[in-house]
Each structure stands twice: as C-alpha cells, then as structure tokens.
Amino acid sequence: MKIRIVLASAVVAGAFSLTAIAISGVLSKEPVPPAIAEATLWTPDSLSEPQIVETNSVRSFFVQADDEFRFAPLLPLPVALADAPMPSIEPPLVTWSREIASGETLDAVLSDAGLDASDRAEIALAIGAEYDLRRLRPGHAITVVSTTDGTPRRVELAVEDSIRIETVFGEQLATRVLKPDPEMVTFAAEAVIESSVFAALDKAGIPARFAVDMAQMLGGTVDFRRELSGGETMRLFWREARDGNERIGQPELAFAALNLGETVYEIVWPDDGSGKAMIYVDGEVLRVFAQPVEGARLSSVFGRRTHPVYGNVRMHTGVDFAATRGTPVKATAPGRVSFIGRRGGYGRVVEIAHGSATLTRYAHLSEVPDTLEQGQRVMAGDMIGRVGATGTATGPNLHYEVLVDGRPTDPLSDDRLAEAAERDADDTAALERLAEARALLAERLTSEFVQTTTERL
User: Domain M23ase beta-sheet core: where (predicted)?
Assistant: First the structure.
C-alpha cells in the first residue's frame, strides 16, 4: 500500500515539472526578425537540361558505327629530340708509374707495365722521335695510364730538368714535349770551413757541388789541403731556375769569396753566356778562366781509377764533365786550334795549343762547328764543339785534358792556362764586375738575414 502511494506521488511530481518547463520556454521565446523569416522561404530555380553543341575543335574518343562503339586511334604525342648526343661514358682508368732502374730500357719498363709488344714498339717510336732513348738513365720515370683491360691511353716519360715527353692514344698517336717555364731565383749564404769546403757548404745548406767549382777555379792558386786550418769563411751568391718549389737543372754559382787569413780570393762567374770567370786576389785581377762546360757535373777527376768500360785500374789523364748530349763545349783559355779529328778511344777531338808547351784536349765530342778550322785563333769562352759520347764512353760527357810538354797534368791545379788568359783580361771592366757582384751579394745576404729573423720572431 505504501509503495503505491509513493509511486503515485512521483508521477504527479513529474507531470508538474514538465508542465512548468514548457510554460517557461514559451514565455521566454522572442519573435523571429522578418528578414530572416523571408530568407528561409527562398528556393533555387530549377536547372535546365544541358545543350550539346557540335564543334570541330574537340574530337570524340569514341565513334559510333552500326549502333556499336569502337575505340578511335589516338594521335601520337610529339617527342622533342635533343640537339646534342648523349655523352659517352668513359671507362675507368688505371695509372701505373715507376722510375727507370740502372741498365733498363724503355721496352723493359713498358713490358713491366703490362703493355703488349705492338703497343711498346709504337710508344718507343713515338717517344724516340722527340727524345734520344740512349740518354735514359736512373731517375727518369715512366707513367702509363690505361683502361682496366690494359689498353693504353697515355704514356709519359719524365726526364731531366722536369721535361716530359707525352704520348696520347687516339685515332692517331700524338706526341708532345712539355717543358716547364722556370723562374730564375737568386740565393746568398755564408759558410765557415771546419774540415773541408764540401762539408762547410753542405752544413750551411749551400749546394755542395760548388766545392768543385771553387776547386777548379782556385786549384792552381790555393792548396786547400795545406792552407785551410779551420775557421775560414766563404760567402756565395748563386742562381737557380725554379718551377714553383722544384729546382730545374743545376744551380749556377755567380760569385764566391774566400777569406784565407789576410788574403781574400774572389771569383765572378758571368751571366752573359761567355763562360769566362774572373779570379781576383785582394781586389785585383789574378786571371781569367773559362769552364769547358757550364753547369756540368764533375764526374771523374785526374789520377788512377778503375776504368768504367775495361774494368782494370788505369791512369785517368784528365777530368770528365757529365752533361747532356749537345751541350756547348768552350775553350778554357785563348790559343790556336792545332787538331780537329778522331783519336781512337777519345772519339771526336779538338785540341788547342796555348803557347809552345801547353795544350788542351776536348774529347768525346758529338760535333764540331763547321766554321772551326785548324790553325784558327780562339778566345777563352769560344764554342769549339758539343758534348757527345764518341769513342770509348759510357754516356755523354766531355773528357778534358791539359798537357804540358806532352805530359798530362791535373787540369784543376795547373796554372799555365792562367798565364795565357791573363793577358786578355780587361782590368777596368773586370773591376766593375767585381764591384757589382759584391753589391749583389751584400744586398742578398741582408735580405736573407731579415727574412730569417722575421721567421724566428
């Protein structure tokens, strides 16, 4: 009974609540504005059926025939072709390089590089047309650039003075000689003699080969073994041809001064190509000397030695200057040509008489000027031939002898040639050359000192 009363009460309460909410909503609702009410009554116009217009500008993809549809062929799209052909793809290349060993031939080195006989022969002919292959020596280098299957593309031979002979394979074999464009750079330095001239130059960072030049110039005046006690100073000024940091060829000594006790010996080498060097003692001209081959390396001195060809010990009656074939050979002192021709193992020879007792001999020459005749008078520095390898020689060099009364003497110590050359010296011009050389040396030494001091700071 009680439950029924409770449920009836809940229903009556709910009815009253809903009635209250409805009355509240009606009383609180505001009227809709006329513009909005009008907008709600708008409806869009009905769409008209689309009209199909026949035109020639559009081609149907379908064509009707016999109440059936078939596909019409499509016109091919235009393709723009490139004017230039597609670049060819180069095959990968392999580079092989090494120096030539003693006694090796070009063919042997190319064989070691893996080239076949026909390619080796073709390369040898091409390079041989530009360079005498008999002049190959240790230190020269071969570079071969080829494809992975061994087909050569480029072969390069690097020889002296940074000269390269390059052969390139193409439709035809092309060979060219590549020479550097060096810059002439000057240097100056001072050295103190402790044990020998050679050791002093080497310690001071000066080309040690200048010891030979000084010995050749002063050999007949200064006894380097007896007169050097230690502490003597040398000042040198020289030139080097350089391609970047690489030196081309041999350095050339331009001026040297040796303080020997209270005596000062000075040597001025020319830069005019004459080859005449002036030797001074305490500022006065002592003599004129012309080197037989400028810039050459003294490869063998006077005295007993093992013969390079026969292998036995023999007396070497002169000195040898190793130089490139064709290098000019010059008379070392004024005189008269007494012989032109061949003399057994000497090969092609020129001999010059300097007075009645002294004679100089220039051997292994490759050629002699057509204008040079027997009996002709020559001056120091005149060209009388070119370096070669005629006669018994292992390679291009000049064999130079000085004979006194028919007997060979050491060309680096004999002083008789100086007496012949001394008469040709122009004292005024010689003193001017000395003053100029001293000024250049002083200027360069100051520059080197300032540069070294700046680097240390």
Answer: 314-411
Picking from 223, 124, 239, 118, the residue whose alpha carbon sits closest to that of residue 185 is: 239
What's the confidence (pLDDT) of residue 329? 92
CATH class of 93-178: alpha beta
Cα separation, 246 vs 169, in Å, equals 29
Contact indicator for 360, 335 with CB cutoff of 8 Å = yes
Which residues lie below 8 Å from residue 400, measured CB to CB, with a gap of 6+?
292, 318, 319, 320, 321, 332, 360, 361, 362, 363, 411
Whether the CB-CB separation of 398 and 329 falls below 8 Å is answered with yes
Domains 93-178 and 181-269+426-457 share a fold: yes
- Domain ranges for the chain, please list them: 93-178, 181-269+426-457, 297-425
- Identity of the residue numbered 305: R
For residue 170, the number of C-alpha atoms closer than 13 Å in the C-beta half-sphere is 6
| Position 62 confidence tier, pLDDT thresholds 50, 70, 90 | very low
Task: Tell whether pTM > 0.90.
Answer: no
What span, in angstroms and rounded, lies between the C-alpha atoms of 227 and 59?
115
Tell me the fold of 297-425: Glucose Permease (Domain IIA) (2.70.70)
Give pLDDT tens digits for 375-418: 999 987 889 999 999 988 878 888 988 888 888 877 755 554 55
- b/e for 218-257, b at 16 or more Cβ within 10 A? bbbbbebeeebeeebebbbbbebbbeeeebbebbbbbbbb
Query: In CATH, what number does 181-269+426-457 get?
Result: 3.10.450.350
Q: How confident is the model at residue 163 (pLDDT cuts 50, 70, 90)?
A: confident
